[in-house]
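Example: RNA polymerase sigma factor.
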Amino acid sequence: MSVKEELIRQIPNLRAFAVSLCGNAERADDLVQEALMKAWASIDMFEAGTNMRAWLFTILRNVYYSDFRKKRREVEDADGKLAANLSTHPEQIGHLDMVDFREALDKLAADQREALILVGASGFSYDEAAEICGCAVGTVKSRVNRARTRLAELLSLQSGADYGPDHQSRSVVDARKF
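Written out as structure tokens, the predicted fold is:
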């Protein structure tokens, strides 16, 4: 029997296996077709005299699990509504904000900068920061408060909304959300 005849002879068995894997006849037909295409494309890798059925079933199983893993990461968006709502703020603003922030951070007193970095950036509690700095907890709290106030002054911030995208870019991105 030729390789082509053996492939064709295995189609009903492959289809039954595919239906048992996915539980959907249409999807099973797609799996069988894809498995046969992969098998035909790499038929030179099949060793004559070995079990063609096992080889085809392995290919089908691998196709099914590859698709299964891929579909777990995908979101169906047939009408394009989700894609239409995807937008991001320009990165230039964030980069410039970070440059401004670093310059302002460098202008803080060393003890305030240290306390702010320990508590605000490194995630230490006030108690842990006080132990690291070798001072009282109240001193660390005071330094952090003064550092935050001074940073807000240096960066001309009135609220958290002032830091980030400018009004024009924020309005464009926000307009796309409905």
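The radius of gyration is 31 Å.
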